């Protein structure tokens, strides 16, 4: 199922303006999209359909409760993908499933960030991260992308936990400014 950015964003904007029907329709449409996203990612891991359904519910709850964080000037689907991917990675960490459990032939299905490269191209995380100083980029990669704890990242980088936290904070702030800068004509 291909999500229609224009229609879904219109529903999100109406939802943020207080339209309950639009909010309900948005969640219904996103649930179908997320269901396909998770089933596709989990299909080669031997996981059940109910696990994909659990992830759909987790992602919908995160979208619902975090909708106030959505930047109305930005495309919607990159924001949805970020939430969906985070929930998937968090689930894989919790259940101790790794890419090595999946096998090389299907590893890309789990680690792929995007089924809609066109919608997310303006927010290419790798390109944005490459603009950060090494210490900030590495801290973000280890903690926010790879899912290490701050203590684990500090040990790996040979830095203090405070330094890792500061680098993440400053790096995320810099990324936000880069994204905002790219969004302006």
Molecular structure report:
- 72% of the residues lie in helices and 0% in strands.
- With 185 residues, it is mostly helical.
- It folds into two domains: 1-121, no CATH class; 124-185, Orthogonal Bundle (Arc Repressor Mutant, subunit A), CATH 1.10.10.
- Helix 9 (134-145) runs antiparallel to helix 10.
- 24% of the residues are buried.
- The model is unreliable at 99-123 (pLDDT under 50).
Short description:
This protein has 185 residues and is mainly alpha-helical.
The quaternary state of the protein chains shown equals: single chain
Sheet with the most strands, sense and barrel status: none
- Runs in which pLDDT lies below 50 for 5 or more consecutive residues are 99-123
Coarse structural class: mainly alpha
* Bulk shape: globular
What percentage of amino acids are in beta strands? under 5%
- Helicity range of the residues? over 70%
- pLDDT averaged residue by residue: 79
Instruction: List how many beta strands DSSP finds.
Output: 0
How many structural units, i.e. domains?
2
Q: What order do the SSEs take from the amino end to the carboxyl end, as H and E?
A: HHHHHHHHHHH
**Straight-line N-to-C gap:** 31 Å
Number of helices: 11
InterPro entries: RNA_pol_sigma-70-like, RNA_pol_sigma-70_dom, RNA_pol_sigma70_r2, RNA_pol_sigma70_r4_t2, RNA_pol_sigma_r2, RNA_pol_sigma_r3/r4-like, WH-like_DNA-bd_sf
GO molecular function, one term: sigma factor activity
Family: Belongs to the sigma-70 factor family. ECF subfamily.
GO biological process, one term: DNA-templated transcription initiation
């Amino acid at each position: 199922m291909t999500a229609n950015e224009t229609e879904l964003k219109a529903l999100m904007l109406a939802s943020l303006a207080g339209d309950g029907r639009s909010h309900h329709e948005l969640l219904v449409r996103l649930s179908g999209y997320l269901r396909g996203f998770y089933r596709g990612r989990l299909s080669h891991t031997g996981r059940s359909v109910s696990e994909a359904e659990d992830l759909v519910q987790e992602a919908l709850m995160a979208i619902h409760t975090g909708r106030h964080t959505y930047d109305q000037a930005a495309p919607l689907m990159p924001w949805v993908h970020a939430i969906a991917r985070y929930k998937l990675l968090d689930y894989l960490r919790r259940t101790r499933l790794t890419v090595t459990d999946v096998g090389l032939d299907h590893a890309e299905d789990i680690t792929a960030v995007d089924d809609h490269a066109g919608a997310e191209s303006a927010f290419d995380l790798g390109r944005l991260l490459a603009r950060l100083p090494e210490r900030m980029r590495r801290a973000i990669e280890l903690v926010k992308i790879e899912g290490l704890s701050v203590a684990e990242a500090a040990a790996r980088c040979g830095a203090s936990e405070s330094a890792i936290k500061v680098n993440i904070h400053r790096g995320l702030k810099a990324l936000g400014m880069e994204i905002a800068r790219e969004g302006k004509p």
